[in-house]
Amino acid sequence: MLKERYIKYKYEKEFAEHFKDNCDCDLTDGGKGSCFYGQYLEKSIDAEEFLKAIGDEYYDLQYGTFIRTITDDVAVVIGVIKIAGVIYLKLDREVILDKKDISKKSNLLPCDKIRTHSNILKELVQIGDIANGNQIIDIKDGILFYGHWGNEHIIGEVKELLTRNNYDSKVVLS
């Protein structure tokens, strides 16, 4: 449902062009068949296949996708909306929108403010983050190392993540 809404909002103009026959569909005998928009509308391909075929980076977007913003916040996608022609991902928490003004926070984030996304939290971890209560000091071949000498690593899933930015700005040390 989330992917379908994203497609509807992002490719609204392209679908309109398809309906006006201003697309690459060639349904004549010996023609190449329907374009990707036509295939999606005819349900020959699903939403993920459609997004992969046209090269959209959010082909794996779903409810619960983790995102890391350009301001180094991490949140979970819970919806997609369109306001004044701009597509926003609705998040489970407020994030900082602008590096220059940290008071600008919202749970609606335009797609251009996303640095990376994944359906696996571990893939968003960076050096300096706190993952499962341990500060990550090195990442090699997808293994997250922590500890004073960097010889211990996280085994299994990452269930909790605090970015270095949030740790530095919100933790009080004596």
Helices and strands in order:
Layout: H1 2-10, H2 12-19, H3 36-41, H4 47-53, E1 66-69, E2 74-83, E3 86-96, E4 105-110, E5 114-118, E6 130-131, E7 134-140, E8 143-146, E9 152-153, E10 161-162, H5 164-170
Antiparallel strand pairs: 1-2, 1-5, 2-3, 3-4, 6-7, 6-10, 7-8, 8-9
Note down, in words, how this protein is organized.
- This protein has 174 residues and is of the alpha+beta class.
- Helices cover 21% and strands 30% of the residues.
- The protein has helices spanning 2-10, 12-19, 36-41, 47-53, 164-170, and strands at residues 66-69, 74-83, 86-96, 105-110, 114-118, 130-131, 134-140, 143-146, 152-153, 161-162.
- The longest helix has 9 residues, at 2-10.
- The chain is elongated, with a radius of gyration of 20 Å.
Tell me the β content: 25-35%
Span between N and C termini?
48 Å
Q: Based on DSSP secondary structure assignment, what is the total number of beta strands?
A: 10
Instruction: Tell me, briefly, the overall form.
Output: elongated
Number of helices: 5
- Uncertain stretches of 5 or more adjacent residues: none
Mean pLDDT across all residues, rounded? 88
Which sheet architecture does the biggest sheet show?
A: 5 strands, antiparallel
